[in-house]
Amino acid sequence: MTDKNNKIPFNEDNYTHNINRNHERELDRRGFMKMLVGAAGVFAVSSLPWGVLAAKELNGLTDKKYPKHKITDVKSIAVGDAVDFAFPGEHDSAILIRLAENEYVAYQNACTHLRCPVFWDKKVEEMICPCHHGKFNAKTGEPIAGPPRRPLPEIQVKVENGAIYAVRVKRYEA
Amino acid sequence: MKHKYVGVVLLLAVLMTNIIVTQYMVHQYFYEHYKNSMLAAIVNAVLFFVAFLIYKMDKKGMSANE
Known about the structure:
Chain A contains 1 helix and 10 strands; from the N terminus they run H-E-E-E-E-E-E-E-E-E-E. Chain A is α+β, with helices and mostly antiparallel strands.
């Protein structure tokens, strides 16, 4: 069995195939098949993390829960005004805008271009980034002008007992 | 086609399926169809066993012929 491969090239007197090494690496049919099985194994192993991540996503990573956070009282914010807050962490600055009597929107206010804090311009009713004049639609958070190309991450808010609470951050949708 | 290359062709088919399933898995992941993505990952794992079985069967068949 072990010398089988050594007989393969030539058994005759020649100058090129005269080195006979035992266990010489050689790609015969079976070796090739072994390689294919190995490649299938690599595919199987490399798809494991995707499966695990997908399972994690299915098990509620999609809806990450944060303790609800009081932003402000309804009384202290007039229609057309905005207030800054931080959600979900104390360094995740965000902005709440009261668009109409019962219409509130909130976004994480780091500009999606270079993370400058976006502010609310009451006159033009747009969110503006002071660094490079990126503009965002206040209703959807989508960029409408300037360098940013991705929308601001939206925060869901809830009005309860005359106060406004941040409930959760909406999943980023590419 | 010689009989002894049946296994090789089967394995190549398995590998092609692997490639297709892997790409499907990654795409479904980013489309947030996580169930499809998990299914594809499982199919990939099963395909490896299939490949292994094909190899084993080939080895057996060949040693019987020798």
